[in-house]
Amino acid sequence: MKLLILDAGHCLSLALAREANRRGDTELVIEEGVSLSPRRLAQLAPDAVVIPPLVEPSSADPSTVMAHAEAVEASLESCQVAGVPLVWCVSDQLYEDGGETPIDEHMIPEPRDENLRRLVKTGNRIRAGLPRHLIVRLGPLFALEGGGAWLNELIDQLMAGETVRAAEDVIVCPTSVDSVALALVGMLQQLGCGADAWGAYHLAGTEPVSIYTFASVVRTQLATRLEGMGCAVTLGELKALNHHHDQPLRRVLNCRRVLDAFGVHQKPWRLELGRMLDTWCQAYHSQEVS
């Protein structure tokens, strides 16, 4: 299977590259930008095109959101011409108001924010114009490298002694980019073998937590590992923010459909976080020793 991944510097693109390197059944071609011309698509002739999500679209500049949406739609037109499936990953922030219960795939986001509405319009165009598509809504991604990695930014702030401000009343499901990469490749392999399961799916980590709690776990585990290695570091403090005074905003995705259709299980974010922190601390300790 040959996959074409757009947005080379994105943390998910890097995770897909790592996953492909571990396998013998997946070839990866990575393009720098998000837009894709029909000619370029014909030259590469992939089995599918994968577009990583725009990071934090709710707080992004309108011009950034518009550019991303237009680039995705240009790639959609190229895929329509070539008959190539399109995989578009998108942030769970499109569910602007969250939900009291886990959000199912059939619930099309209806945000009030103009930026988010523009992305919903793009998703509608994909559904209407390309039968063979995947729209994969993801929880907040975390990784050690790449655009939108989140975890590396948290670590850098803490190591620099800076105060980290995080929402205490926004409940999400942090999602490892490595688990998303593994799931996407597995899903596309099954679809390539004839599975008729195109459509929209939710993919996120297990155990909903506040953004503040996630940052707190990162700080605690990082401090424990550094102390165990004999590294004397004073980490930055955390400050809880509250934006929703009536009740917490719960943005929890129901990932049952991806399990039923492809056998993909959500991965516990705490285990994935621990593995990544082990990797980071080993590299940090080696650097300190050298």
TrEMBL record:
Q: Which InterPro entries match?
A: NAD(P)-bd_dom_sf, RmlD-like-bd
RmlD-like substrate binding domain ranges (all copies): 67-279
Protein name stated in the entry: Sugar nucleotide-binding protein
Q: Which organism is it from?
A: Modicisalibacter tunisiensis
